[in-house]
Write a structure and sequence with these properties.
Radius of gyration: 22 Å
Shape: globular
Largest sheet: none
Oligomer: single chain
Length: 134
């Protein structure tokens, strides 16, 4: 049996590739997740103000009240520097609940593809946040 002799430089290069590629992917996921999550938070506000109803007073109340309630709840429970921020799994569940509500509203107003894309991005962002911020 012949032993294959591997030069030390190749061995180091192989170890470098095995170790750094997952680290690079992990760092890339962290870098992309933060702006993506912030974009989802901003996009969440618009569909809350565009819910169809018959009465003009209800339209005004819903158009101003629902985004305001979402902003206040997000500021209390999900803002990065909030004093009442829950632990990570509960924070992700809270954000998924708000994003799901927005996705449902988008679906009800006839924007079905947008609703599915929005909920998919929110779900993916939450998963990336869970695995990179633990």
């Amino acid at each position: 049996m012949v032993d294959f002799v591997c030069p030390e430089s190749y061995r180091q290069r192989a170890d470098f590739n095995l170790i750094t590629y997952p680290a690079i992917l992990y760092a890339g996921a962290q870098i992309i997740q933060k702006p993506a999550a912030f974009s989802l938070e901003l996009v969440m506000i618009a569909p809350l103000s565009v819910k169809n109803s018959q009465s003009l007073s209800i339209k005004w109340l819903a158009g101003i009240g629902m985004p305001l309630v979402a902003i206040v709840l997000w500021g209390i429970f999900a803002a990065p520097r909030s004093a009442h921020r829950p632990p990570l799994p509960y924070q992700i569940l809270f954000s998924w609940a708000l994003f799901s509500m927005v996705g449902y509203m988008l679906y009800q107003t006839g924007h079905k593809t947008t609703a599915f894309v929005f909920c998919g991005l929110a779900f993916g962002s939450g998963l990336i946040a869970y695995f990179t911020e633990r």
